[in-house]
Amino acid sequence: MTKMKTTINVAVISCICLAVLGCKKYNEDYKDYLDNKEITYPGLATKVGYHAGNLRTVLFWNPSPDPSVKSYLITWNNGVDSMVVNATSNDPAVKMSVSVPGLMEYVYSFKIVARDAAGNKSVGQELNNVRVYGPAFAASLTNRPHDPSTPFEFNSDGSLKLNFTKADSTNYSTVIKYTNVSGATEERVLLSDAMSINIPNYKLGTAVQYKSSFKPERTAADAFFVNSYSEFPEIFRIVEMDKSKFQALSFPTDIRSEYGWELRYLWDNKKEESQGAGFHTGGSGMPQWFGIDLGAQTTLNSFRLWQRSSALYNVGNLKRFEVWGSNNPNTDGSWESWTKLTTFNSFKPSGQPAGQNSAADIAFAAAGEQFTFPAGLPNYRYVRFKVLETWGVQGYMHLMELTFYKKE
Q: Does 147 lie in the same domain as 229?
């Protein structure tokens, strides 16, 4: 019985020894595959992101705090393309970035892998849906519109102010190109949050062009310009004409003055009867006409007319009349050398009958009633008024003052 127990114990001990020896061999088998080396995984980068660009992208991340990390391997196109970025810092509070150029207008996936000096790699981070923009996006852009109601105005100091509509949310800036008073081309930049921009040294009569840029995403690295410039509407200043150059025309068919109220008094800056006489004609019936030499060919914009205040909206004050223009009028007073510019009708705010004037009527007439010429007229030096009807339906006319305004 004792001999049998001894035999069993020896057998058990032998099995245990064999098992231990076998396990030791299998436990070290992995070294054959790892060349007797341990696997080392460098620390990961964090907060990986990108800024969209023009046929490029700008990748950024916070570096790994692992001091062994010496570089980052960036791959895309399923690993076909790659670049290496040296680890300039191991401070995770520092932001690293790199521009990846030469890309197509497409959506990419990138992988950023940290590496140590021995070539060990981190698992890496995937960055998907990285949008790259290019010519197709630029072709879809249009310039920020100027304000259609008041595209421009002149400030009290004489500088030009350009007005725009509210910018699109993707608008970044608008470049204004113009000619300065010295004849040189200048550029100024209107930012997206501004509605207007002042041009202090603009040369009047020259073109103003503008081109806008846009960022496809709020944090984009690049702004895209519209492919071509847009042009502002014609920019001009409305100025009062120099009355010292005016002269009265006196053709054979023109109406003559009466009562010492001469044609030349229409540009002596006396708008009230208390200041002096105006222009008055005889009662030969309607129509009657008279002409003025403005002194030079002019782009006419408008004029103001002051009535004789003692007969406001009555008697011989002008109600309906035509204005004609010429640069070489026939001296015989005929109309063949004249061009009709337009017909004007005087306006009475209250609409009350003759002899009844409201406070609005009086104020409107006292300011000088403004009449505006049609746009696009040729330049004229001579103008001729043909009066068709007066407010009092009289065969004569009278008025105090005329002030002309031109475009320049």
A: yes
